[in-house]
Write a structure and sequence with these properties.
The chain has two helices and no strands. The protein is mainly α. The model has no long low-confidence stretch (mean pLDDT 88).
């Protein structure tokens, strides 16, 4: 049975390996922001 999502998965994989995605520096900055937001939320609880 063919996976109806395979074309979409193949396209995502190709984009990921094309170096068109966000840089590692951008991703680390996003993780830092998420950490600060999470810590602020925990303090409010």
């Amino acid at each position: 049975m063919a996976n109806k999502f395979q074309p979409m998965l193949d396209a995502q994989k190709a984009r990921f390996f094309s170096d068109l995605s966000k840089s590692a520096q951008w991703r680390l900055a996003q993780l830092d922001r998420m950490e600060r937001t999470s810590k602020a939320s925990v303090k409010r609880l």
